[in-house]
Automatic annotation (TrEMBL):
The lineage of its organism: Eukaryota, Metazoa, Ecdysozoa, Arthropoda, Hexapoda. This is SET domain-containing protein. Residues 1-11 have a biased composition (Basic and acidic residues). GO terms for molecular function: N-methyltransferase activity; protein methyltransferase activity; S-adenosylmethionine-dependent methyltransferase activity. InterPro entries: SET_dom (IPR001214), SET_dom_sf (IPR046341), SET_SmydA-8 (IPR053010). Residues 20-41, 366-382 have a biased composition (Low complexity). Residues 56-302 form the SET domain. It comes from the Eukaryota.
């Protein structure tokens, strides 16, 4: 879904180019493609909740709260392929900067070649919308700039002339995906039927003026009045907008896509699958943890490194349901304490919502198990903490603080070491060490220590290498709970972790401060990080940045094994 994936490795992918389509390791027995789905088996009506897919690892069920959803039709192991599907439709995300309508690449770097220096970019001869080059391979393609789309975009004159600055976001691009969906009615009735099976939550959205009105002005009026496409009734355009809001996946570098079958996946804030898409936006879904037969197959529509208040707000506002999953229902978020605030009375990081399923719930200090000083000594020697004299914070105050944190962390430059460290230093006295806002900043730091100018890996002092290592260990411990198993967050972090151990060990061995035995122990730890990273990221498309890290992990592992 269009989940926020800002600091998930997949979201970082937004900043990387993808060049080739390549699916990672395959488990062919479980592959399901559109051809299989459209087979003639009379039982294969996905609207029928009793539909049992033959030879496929899932079934469709229906529940009063979630509607249709997928459950495991057999025991599924971590890494097993569950689904692989082509996109039904692909296009730019909401509020996109201008992109080529053929290949959807943005206009920077070497993505486009101008045929004339006097032009800002090449443009389609018919509709005048920007293109990367006159021979873009996406021209005339069903998932690119088709002839039908070109005709629609020039029906009332060449609308692409309105796209001016190539480096500024423009709401004009918000119409492209809805239009591509509407055009399917004539272009590909099979795909149109598949899209129309999806939920649009029209009734709920109609009651939300901010949502409905934004679509009316930004999409419905544009398509019908500006582009002169009166053949699409306003209600139908609104429904398509709703279908996209509820069901679209964020893919590629700032794109969104709809997938048949995958849209049925229910949400869980601790999902049991992981998905990726390749250069052609073909999506692959795999189990990240064991999924026993009969259990729901889930993915997260929200950002996993986010607290319950914000996740539930996002799900309510953009997916139109109240999440009541195990993580949302538990004030401690499965023991991760990732929303906990420090109590101003007793100093413990134990202030949590009393009723996490109520957005306006008061927050209260729940000191059980937490030491009075968060970073103080633990274990049997730690002095028993005095009881908290009692502290409660009104829900509105907690929300105001959480909103402020969100604004500040969203404004952070994720490549700026001092800004990230400054944020951590500022908020550590007020937040649990595993609070999601600190985890987000640490996640960025885990990647920038070793990569950005002035902090390249061999330039790092021992102290900074220790810092990178400690950060990786901290975030991995929480990811193990919130996004466990074969997850990109874990794969990338394990890869980042190997470097500081390796360099510190080499420096210390050369300085004679560790023994040969210590060296062997540390190399075993490095090999273990790399083995796990290579395994997890080996499932990513090789052309993606994560796939490339998986390959690097495999190479590094071979070198470490030679050393060992
Ligand atoms: C992408 S659709 C999933 C398929 C949908 N259940 C259907 O029947 O078309 C997303 C919608 O499914 C429902 N849904 C998904 N996960 C849910 C959950 N954990 N709890 C409640 N509703 C959920 C919500 O209505 C949500 O807007």
């Amino acid at each position: 879904m269009e989940a926020r994936k800002r600091r998930d490795a997949k979201s970082n992918k937004k900043h990387h180019k993808r060049q080739q389509a390549a699916a990672a390791q395959q488990n062919n027995h479980a592959i399901i493609n559109n051809n299989n789905i459209n087979s003639n088996n009379k039982n294969e009506d996905p609207d029928d909740p009793d539909w049992i897919l033959q030879d496929k690892p899932f079934e469709v069920k229906i529940s009063a709260t979630m509607g249709r959803y997928l459950v495991a039709g057999k025991d599924i192991a971590p890494g097993d392929l569950i689904l692989r599907q082509e996109a039904l439709v692909v296009g730019p995300c909401q509020n996109s900067k201008p992109v080529c309508l053929g290949c959807l690449k943005p206009f920077h770097g070497e993505n486009y070649i101008r045929s004339s220096e006097s032009e800002d970019c090449d443009r389609c001869m018919g509709c005048q919308w920007p293109l990367c080059c006159p021979t873009c391979p996406g021209l005339g393609q069903p998932l690119g700039h088709s002839e039908e789309e070109c005709a629609a975009l020039r029906a009332a004159g060449p609308s692409g002339r309105r796209v001016m600055a190539l480096n500024k976001r423009t709401p004009l691009y918000n119409v492209i995906v809805p239009l591509r969906v509407l055009l399917l009615q004539k272009q590909d009735p099979g795909r149109w039927k598949a899209v129309r099976r999806m939920q649009s939550h029209d009734d709920t959205r109609r009651g939300m003026p901010s949502v409905w009105q934004a679509n009316q002005l930004g999409v419905v009026d544009r398509i019908r009045s500006e582009f002169g496409l009166q053949e699409y009734p306003a209600d139908e355009v609104h429904t398509v907008c709703g279908i996209l809001e509820v069901n679209a996946f964020e893919v590629g570098d700032g794109q969104r896509a709809l997938y048949d079958m995958a849209f049925l996946l229910a949400h869980d804030c601790t999902p049991n699958t992981s998905h990726s898409d390749d250069e052609r936006r073909t999506m692959t879904l795999r189990a990240s943890v064991p999924i026993p037969k009969g259990h729901a197959i889930t993915l997260s529509y929200a950002y996993t490194v986010q607290g319950t208040l914000k996740r539930r707000e996002h799900l309510k506002e953009s997916k139109f349901f109240d999440c009541c999953c195990a993580r949302c229902s538990d004030p401690t978020e499965l023991g991760s304490m990732c929303s906990a605030l420090v109590c101003p009375r007793c100093g413990r990081p134990s202030v949590l919502p009393v009723e996490p399923l109520q957005a306006d719930s008061p927050w209260r200090c729940r000191p059980s198990g937490a030491p009075a000083q968060p970073r103080g000594p633990r274990g049997p020697q730690a002095a028993p903490a005095p009881p908290c004299p009692g502290y409660e914070m009104p829900g509105a105050q907690a929300k105001e603080f959480v909103d402020k944190l969100a604004d500040e962390s969203e404004a952070l430059d994720t490549n700026d070491v001092s800004a990230l460290e400054g944020f951590i230093a500022k908020y550590s006295p007020r937040l649990h060490p595993d609070h999601y806002a600190l985890l987000g900043a640490k996640h960025s730091l885990s990647q920038v220590y070793g990569k950005v100018h002035g902090y390249l890996i061999h330039q790092l002092s021992d102290a900074l290498l220790q810092r990178k290592l400690a950060i990786c260990r901290d975030i991995l411990r929480v990811f193990d709970v919130l996004d466990p198993g074969v997850s990109r967050l874990r794969g990338i972090t394990l890869y980042e972790m190997h470097a500081p151990i390796m360099i510190l060990t080499t420096r210390q061995f050369e300085a004679g401060t560790i023994t040969r035995k210590d060296l062997r122990t540390r190399l075993r730890e490095v090999a273990s990080c790399l083995e796990q990273a290579a395994h997890i990221l080996g499932f990513e498309p090789e052309s993606s940045s994560e796939g490339a890290i998986g390959l690097a992990a495999r190479d590094a592992l071979e070198r470490v094994r030679q050393w060992q």
